[in-house]
Design brief:
single chain; 7 strands; globular
């Protein structure tokens, strides 16, 4: 059974929150929000990836959006939260990836943003990168840090509205929940 064939929580009678979902029950139901997803599978020991969430299709550094970050698990790796808390704005896409790839993904995002038109004089960028803890049975080669700058660029380039892949894909490819 694929992830798309499995029933969603609402179909099983679990209704989180107090609001009704949008037509896709996805983050892309919010106007202008785009999601890019890349899954990295290598042999039988790498199952990970990167997910990019963009609040709009423009240059986020030049067209920042109001933002806040709430930490639900203080044990996780999270780059960029302090500046968002201090200034109340987001200046980069939000990327999610495996535990040991957070820093590589942050570096690749900064590199990609510095290459954008209009960024020639930028001296500081606050990337926002969060982890999905996937270093167990499915992504046992996590120490190889398999997510690359190419994967980051692909996730940014393929970001789109509409349906979002669900299940064991992209940044969540090797993640476990509800043990």
């Amino acid at each position: 059974m694929s992830a798309q064939d499995r029933p969603r929580a609402r179909e099983l009678g679990v209704a989180p929150g107090v609001f009704s979902p949008g037509p896709l029950n996805a983050i892309t139901d919010v106007g202008g929000v785009l999601v890019g997803q890349v899954t990295v599978i290598e042999g039988d020991s790498v199952r990970t990836g990167v997910t990019a969430i963009l609040p709009h299709a423009g240059n986020l550094f030049l067209q920042r959006v109001p933002a806040a970050i709430v930490v639900g698990n203080g044990f996780g790796k999270l780059i960029g939260s302090t500046q968002v808390d201090e200034l109340g704005e987001l200046e980069s896409p939000i990327l999610l990836t495996c535990t040991l790839c957070v820093w590589k993904v942050a570096d690749a995002l900064v590199e990609s943003m510095l290459r954008l038109p209009g960024m020639e004089n930028v001296r500081s960028i606050n990337p926002v990168i969060g982890e999905t803890n996937d270093g167990y049975e499915l992504n046992i080669a996590i120490r190889s840090r398999p997510v690359t700058a190419l994967h980051v660029r692909q996730s940014l380039a393929t970001a789109r509205g509409g349906p979002v892949d669900e299940g064991s894909v992209e940044a969540g490819a090797g993640t476990r929940a509800f043990e």
